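Hi R.,

Here's the chain you asked about this morning:
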Amino acid sequence: MLAATFAGGVQAATSTTTFAVTTNLQATCSTTASALAFPAYTPGAGAKTGQGSLAWGISKGSDNPRAAGVFLASSGAQFALMFDELPRRSPSGAPGTFVPVGIAAASNDVGFMRLAFASMAERPGSAAATFVAATNRGVYRSGDGGVNWYRVQLDAPAAMHSALSAVEYAPATTTLFGADRAGALWCSLDDGTTWRAAGQAGAPVVSLRALDGKLMALTDGNGVAIVAPGCP
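And the predicted structure, written out as tokens:
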């Protein structure tokens, strides 16, 4: 049982520690263990992780508490998705082990806006080697466990926004889905290179999550929508 009060902090039932969370809290559950992680503004920590008994522990040092989200890989690696700088990766989530990921330069990457990851997805069956990310500068991919990333040259319909708001693989498949803030859904069978239209969610999509064998879209204004399986 987990007790949470988002306005004044979050407290685990087995712990007396209370800490303030980010305003756009994105809690992330581990795919292989009873772990929950989320970003928090806390003296001495930028992220919190609960294991088993939900006794909260610090997983990120105080060097930078500006995490907007946390992603837990099946390998145990953790990614801190930052507000205004590159994501940081740790092989274990231990304090002091988070370092910025490597980003390959893109030939047409111009402008002053910093690269920021909005969402990440791990390819099922890849042994935590292949990841895809939705960013403010297009779709990025990693083939080495999230250590290094490069921007994907998309083959997509003209109507597709390259700056997706969310990505996720459909449960037990390698079909990747993406969504945008216009409510459009897209799908890919090659880890984010080629995309097809996959319908509408009815409102801007905030997050895509694989839960209970279904792919669900959390929207801003239309509740939670179940995404139809398969890629048209």
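Residues 184 and 200 are 5 Å apart (CA to CA).

Let me know if you need anything else.
M.
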